[in-house]
Design a protein that fits this description.
Length: about 250
């Protein structure tokens, strides 16, 4: 992996995506074989998170990929992350799934904590930086978002319906682009990690009827698009204009 990182940073990021996808599918199989849903997956991804973090630390890439706290000067630029906070807790407006036991909720929490961390590090950290360094910011924002969304197609292997899968991919692309914009403005992937964990966790412990779920999805996507437009037009594009003025 170290050699690949030096030769081709984009392929290095893709390799980590491959490791993650294969790990999830193998661990899901182990969970099914022991009869405890998501247990092996959650524990296994905790191990993968640890390995990934230690690898990044060894390569001195922690700060490079944005695994740092948000600088206070950028908080206002992101509207104090209020839109992101609303999106993160939006699904908690549904009805709690009373059929879940405390151990199941704890397993879901462990799983989503590691999924959120790994996916943000890989997609908004490694992949985003690699594409940005090679092809520029705009392509990095778009490609990392598309890759993140299309990567969710593996959920078909986990029994998800095609209709639900299409909705998830569309939502993931839009949210992926939004999170990439946040990284560009804040220079940190931590807001995305927190959002990712809360958003995924709420979707596993809350339930809603089909109509409510549909309107909630539309509301989430509309807010995500508006927030993305704000970040790009008023922050990224504006900063580019200021840079051009200074250089002239």
């Amino acid at each position: 992996m170290k050699g690949l990182l030096k030769k081709n940073a984009v392929l290095h990021a893709v390799a980590w995506i491959g490791i993650y996808v294969v790990s999830v599918n193998v661990l899901d199989g182990v969970s099914a074989s022991i009869g405890v849903q998501n247990l092996a997956t959650g524990l296994g991804l905790f191990g993968l998170s640890t390995v990934l973090f230690l690898y990044l630390k060894n390569q001195e890439m922690i700060k490079t990929i944005g695994l740092v706290k948000v600088d206070s000067s950028t908080i206002r630029k992101c509207l104090f992350f209020i839109p992101l906070g609303i999106l993160a807790v939006s699904q908690f407006t549904g009805k709690f799934n009373a059929s879940l036991t405390i151990p199941q909720i704890m397993i879901f929490g462990l799983l989503m904590l590691n999924v959120g961390f790994i996916e943000e590090v890989i997609f908004r950290g490694l992949l985003y930086k690699a594409i940005k360094d090679k092809s520029g910011r705009n392509r990095a924002i778009l490609i990392s978002g598309l890759t993140f969304g299309l990567g969710h197609i593996v959920n078909l292997l986990r029994g998800m319906s095609i209709e639900h899968q299409f909705q998830q991919i569309a939502a993931a692309i839009i949210l992926g682009i939004m999170l990439a914009l946040i990284v560009e403005v804040s220079k940190s992937i931590l807001p995305g990690v927190i959002f990712h964990v809360l958003f995924n966790f709420s979707s596993t412990i809350m339930i809603a009827d089909a109509t409510t779920e549909f309107y909630l999805l539309i509301s989430i996507l509309v807010l995500a698009v508006l927030y993305s437009a704000y970040l790009y037009v008023s922050q990224i594009k504006q900063n580019r204009g200021l840079s051009l003025v200074k250089s002239s």
